[in-house]
Amino acid sequence: MFTEAQNFAIVQTELDSVFYQNWDGESFPGYATAETGSIFKPLNTDHAAYIEEIFKGSGLFSAIGETSTVPLSTPKVTNKITTYIKDYANSIELSKNLFDDNMHGVYTRMIADFAMVARKTQEDNAFAFFRGAFTTSLTADGSAFIASHTLIGGGTQSNVVSGALTTSTLNDAIVVLAQMKNQAGVIIGSIPSVLLVPPKLFKHAKEITDSALIADSGNNNINVYRSAFGFEVWTSPYLSAAAGGSDTAWFLLGKNHSVTRLIRQGIQTALRDWTYSNNRTYLYQANFREAVYAPDYVGAVGSTGV
Questions:
Q1: Which of 36, 134, 178, 255 is in Cβ range 3.0-4.6 Å of 32 for a Cys bridge?
Q2: How many structural domains is the chain composed of?
Q3: Is 39 a domain residue?
Q4: Which H or E element spans position 50?
Q5: pLDDT value of residue 152
């Protein structure tokens, strides 16, 4: 015979089994999530706020004589940025009778939907950074992630490309990445790693990058985007106009980009037993704590698509 405590543990196990099965969700080729590491670099933190400053870096080495004084490069740290971790939570009430009887699998569908919405909340939060990349998603210098940036060492660097996604504008973005200067004004030669587009551009982006021959051309030119670069193409519905983003904007990320997913706490669930309620209901809740930010512009290029 089960005790009340044992029954409670069984309920928690059953609910968690349904929740985590649907939290893991389904994967689709080319569809990114908040856990796609090439887009959102994961970083664990133990604090509610993450404080960071940008390192200017050293300049290029100089050629000197055998007994010449070695040049002195003065590193500089400035442009402090503070990122506050957000706490995402929700709960659902299940009547004791509904759980005990499980008529037509109702409670399992409720928990499945609860888990699915939790996962979609995580994805919506992550891609909100790119939805605001031209406006509200700021780097440590106070400028939008995709904008013209004032360098710590003097001068400016733009990571904006004009125009809709084509073979020509994609090449423009690759050139900008290759010639991009860091905060010290040194060209670092970033290599493209990820092409990130909304769903309406996904087919076009795959044709540009995966066709054996160059897309949208009557010539039999070899498609260099496939043979020479081999970068990944990703999309998400949370980049689209339907989600508050854009159906034309696109981004090219190098391996050295700084878009980071700060993880304070992964998904957790908890259950309040019906014996502690006044209406014989279980209270099942879940929460996670994280934030997405980019301290620096280096390694990223974007276009509004117009």
A1: 36
A2: 1
A3: yes
A4: strand 49-55
A5: 92
User: Does any domain span residue 18?
Assistant: yes
Non-local (6+) Cβ contacts of 265 within 8 A are: 287, 288, 289, 290
DSSP character for 229?
I
CA distance 109 to 106: 5
The CA-to-CA distance between both ends of the chain, in Å, stands at: 69
For residue 64, is it within any domain?
no
**DSSP bridge pairs for 55:** 77
What confidence tier does 2 reach under pLDDT thresholds 50, 70, 90? very low
Name the DSSP class of 225: I
Q: What is the DSSP string of 236-304?
A: -GGGSGGGTS-SS-EEEEETT---EEEEEEEEEEEEE-GGGSSSSEEEEEEEEEEEEE-S--TTEEEE-
Give the 3-state secondary structure of residue 18: helix
162 falls within a domain: yes
Q: How many CA within 13 A on the CB side of residue 272?
A: 15
The pair of structure tokens assigned to 196 is: 């990130």
pTM: 0.88
Q: In CATH, what number is assigned to the domain containing residue 139?
A: 3.90.1690
pLDDT of 207: 87
DSSP letter (8 states) at residue 235: E
pLDDT of residue 1: 44
At residue 302's C-alpha, the angle toward residues 300 and 306, to 5°, is 170
β-sheet bridge partners, residue 303: 250
Mean pLDDT for the stretch of residues 196-214: 86
* CA–CA distance, 168 with 165 (Å, rounded to integer): 8
Burial status of residue 55 (CB atoms within 10 A of its CB: 0-12, 13-18, 19 or more): middle
CA–CA distance, 159 with 15 (Å, rounded to integer): 47
Tell me what the mean pLDDT of segment 193-217 comes to. 84
CA distance 184 to 33: 33
